[in-house]
């Protein structure tokens, strides 16, 4: 579990690709799943089966999966310069850090993702202009003609439903890729429930149905209880209630209830007292180190809301100061920082999680606040692929949460802008994979390159047939 800390403890910036060297990761492979055959952390070119280095106006192919649509079509070191007759626009390499929207993924990433959409909406043929050994040639890649995303995707969208089904199949067929970290395990269980895989969810729930150790990180009780709560509300299996109750109590202990206790707090040789905000949760079993974080606080809040729906009594004091902490540390524009209102890092994952929490809580007179959060989420749509340590923590919660905002216009703007990005996440065998981003602390590709992001996309793309409270389902369990 110590690796979880690394996901969030390192500092870093925002979306697409930070620099032409991909922070030295183009030739740094993962050791997990089929992606370990790739020579490094490369751009996934959607369902083609090819992986590549991103240039300003091109992709340079560095790996092609055997048996994929691109196998025998694209060769190593082919430079792709256009798709379906449209030359790629320029990608801007940059580290977008702080409150500004920053650069998006316009250029080869967006253009290739949109070309995939166009081809799948017709006959499935993707035509690529390639420079091969200094000579121009044209390559055709046969993709499945599965249709386009609908104007209301993922709702009323056959393509979204098909992708969610394929993704769930992949999760069940590849247990050997599961590495056991808590956010992967929690999202996997939620994906099972979201697709009606109750028997598989029960197996996972029973294997995980014990309270966390005294020193487990905040992430453990949060993800465990979120999954077990949704499991209980689908099954009525009371065996999990004691564990949910213990998880909720554990999260009280990682919450700051008296900031004065941390006036002498140090971390890395630096004073940290200002970072211990009343009502916030930190990394550890008790809140220490360098202070609270917005995302771990929101995870605790989501835990308490779902547990209460299971009949677990939640201490109103702890919940109220958590809400106050989140509200007080949201900028007047709706920006949510790492912990403070003006902190660094892209906010979309935290904003999405915030919208889920508030949708469940149904607190009155918060329309203006939620409108501001939703508005800044749309402003930050260009910075989806940055989770400070785990990209899927950003786009997973964001793609789900924005759909619960109640703002159809905002939802459409956010989702439609990132439609090409979703296409580029897809692998040729039905999974979704972590993409390189603008974050120095990116670890997800080396911890759970497919299982965690694939499970997150099952939830986001499955909103056409929701089954979970966090997908908007209401009513008594």
Explain this structure:
The chain is built from 15 helices and nine strands. The chain has 477 residues and is of the alpha+beta class. It folds into two domains: 18-142, PDZ domain (Pdz3 Domain, Roll), CATH 2.30.42; 158-471, Glycosyltransferase. Strands 1, 2, 3, 4, 5, 6 and 7 form a seven-stranded antiparallel sheet that branches. Strands 8-9 form a two-stranded antiparallel sheet. The protein is globular, with a radius of gyration of 22 Å. It starts with a helix and ends in a 16-residue tail after the last helix.
Key traits:
477 residues; alpha+beta; Pdz3 Domain; Glycosyltransferase; 2 domains; seven-stranded antiparallel beta sheet; two-stranded antiparallel sheet; 15 helices
Gross CATH architecture of the largest domain = Alpha/alpha barrel
Query: What is the fold named in CATH at topology level of the largest domain?
Result: Glycosyltransferase
Distance between the termini: 32 Å
What is the N-to-C succession of helices and strands? HEEEEEHEEHHHHHEEHHHHHHHH
Q: From the structure provided, what is the oligomeric state, counting identical versus distinct chains?
A: single chain
Low-confidence stretches: 1-15
Domain count: the total is: 2
Helix content: 25-40%
| Shape label | globular
Structural class: alpha+beta
Mean pLDDT: 92
How large is the share of residues in beta strands?
A: 5-15%
User: Based on DSSP secondary structure assignment, what is the total number of beta strands?
Assistant: 9
Largest beta sheet, briefly? Answer: 7 strands, antiparallel
Number of helices: 15
What is the CATH first-level class name of the largest domain?
Answer: Mainly Alpha
Supply Rg.
22 Å
